[in-house]
Amino acid sequence: MPYLRQPFADAFVQLIKRYSSIIDAGFAGHIHYDDFRLVVAPGGGAVAVEKIAPGISPIFGQNPGFLVFSYARRTGRPIDYAAHYLSNLGAARSARDGQWRKEYEFTRRYGQRRFSPAAVATVLRRLKRSGTTQRDYRMLYNVSRGELASSVLPAYACAIANIDRRSFDACYCRCASGLRSSKSRRAPAASAHAGRIRRPRQP
């Protein structure tokens, strides 16, 4: 979902698409959690990726964390990153007590050769079905401090590649419809009493 006002949000995305051949990656930290954003071309291919870094402060409910990127010396293009986090937040009474540990490396955790728009697009496809990728994303989003609830996962998955309100709404409505159908097949007796699925706040 966009954080800029219109018409600047759409104009910014169009600039990224226009110059995607020379933009290797984007970096942000607005939501304070570990996440991604993809810019997708009209044909459906991912042309740019933005890595959202977690906050260094715990006031948003996550463990403090930061990212260290590795890159190709010849091109300057990022090839991987390692996430680090404060592993003893509850016990640390001062900065000296803090124990920082490596949480994961993108390529190893998500099984990709390098960090790139195509790699994150693959992660997103796997995120839409149950499995290891979905479990990892739910845990890593909060920087290993509890899991992202499975009930809101469709909204967060839709937000990764649908960065305008119209496409996000369309994606989330499809996911919510599939969720209702799945629940109906598993528990037909309860379907008659099922209310409307409340749309969560945009991640």
Keywords:
6 strands, disordered C terminus, 7 helices, 203 residues, alpha+beta, single chain
Beta-strand portion reads 15-25%
Order of helices and strands: HEEEEEEHHHHHH
Structural class: alpha+beta
Shape: globular
- Beta strand count: 6
Strand order of the largest sheet: 1-3-2
The main β sheet shows up as: 3 strands, mixed
Rg over C-alpha atoms, rounded to the nearest angstrom: 18 Å
Instruction: Summarize model confidence as the mean pLDDT.
Output: 84
What percent of residues adopt helix (DSSP H or I)?
25-40%
How far the N terminus sits from the C terminus, by CA atoms, comes to 7 Å
List the domain count as a whole number.
1
Helical segment tally? 7
Low-confidence stretches are 179-203
Molecular structure report:
The protein starts with 7 loop residues before the first helix and ends in a 12-residue tail after the last helix. The chain is built from seven helices and six strands. It has helices at residues 8-18, 106-110, 117-127, 132-141, 153-161, 165-186, 188-191, and strands at residues 26-28, 35-40, 46-52, 65-71, 78-86, 100-105. Helix 5 (153-161) runs antiparallel to helix 6. With 203 residues, the chain is of the alpha+beta class. It has a three-stranded mixed sheet. The model is unreliable at 179-203 (pLDDT under 50). The protein has one domain (8-186). Helix content is 35%, strand content 19%. It is globular and about 50 Å long.
